[in-house]
Structure to design on (187 residues):
């Protein structure tokens, strides 16, 4: 059992007798009220998204989850092909299980797959990934003083807000937990 304040995106929890994968979780505090956690859980059996409000001290059961490293190889239609790093077996993963993870993955990236009773239930990404900018408006002259941002389209289709000095072809470090630009990647 873990406290609700300790759960993170991608974790698998047992809530009210149903296994869920945590899609999103936000801490909310309004004025003098006590803070609470607003979470989105995705049912592992049905794929249904459920909004749940939790107290930070609520306890949730975490089932035994086997984790294994897999290498993302490529996309084949609506399925994604991953290879087990230990025995080199390939598995086919549906788009439902992959979720938004596909926006952060290029070929040959290592992800952690979570299994319960031999069934793949969730994919955990590394905290940061490096992606190349394929489209963004040109550099704005004189925009260095203000705190402006612009949209940038990355090689996987992900769109992020970046500082005005970022140009096409640059490689950026992106936080997979928030989807935000962190910095230029070091060469």
């Amino acid at each position: 059992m873990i406290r609700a304040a300790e759960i993170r995106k991608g974790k698998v929890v047992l809530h009210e007798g149903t296994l869920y994968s945590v899609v999103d979780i936000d801490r909310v505090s309004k004025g003098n009220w006590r803070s609470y956690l607003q979470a989105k859980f995705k049912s592992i059996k049905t794929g249904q998204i459920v909004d749940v409000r939790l107290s930070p001290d609520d306890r949730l059961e975490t089932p035994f989850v086997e984790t294994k490293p897999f290498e993302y190889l490529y996309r084949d239609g609506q399925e994604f092909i991953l290879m087990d790093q230990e025995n080199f077996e390939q598995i086919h993963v549906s788009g439902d299980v992959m979720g938004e993870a596909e926006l952060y993955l290029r070929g040959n990236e290592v992800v952690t797959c979570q299994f319960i009773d031999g069934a793949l239930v969730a994919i955990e990404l590394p905290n940061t990934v490096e992606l190349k900018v394929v489209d963004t408006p040109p550099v704005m002259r004189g925009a260095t003083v203000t705190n402006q941002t612009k949209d940038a389209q990355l090689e996987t289709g992900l769109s992020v807000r970046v500082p005005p000095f970022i140009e096409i072809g640059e490689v950026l470090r992106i936080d997979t937990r928030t989807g935000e630009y962190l910095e230029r990647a070091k060469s």
Residues 70 and 88 are 9 Å apart (CA to CA). The chain has three domains: 2-60, 66-124, 128-184.
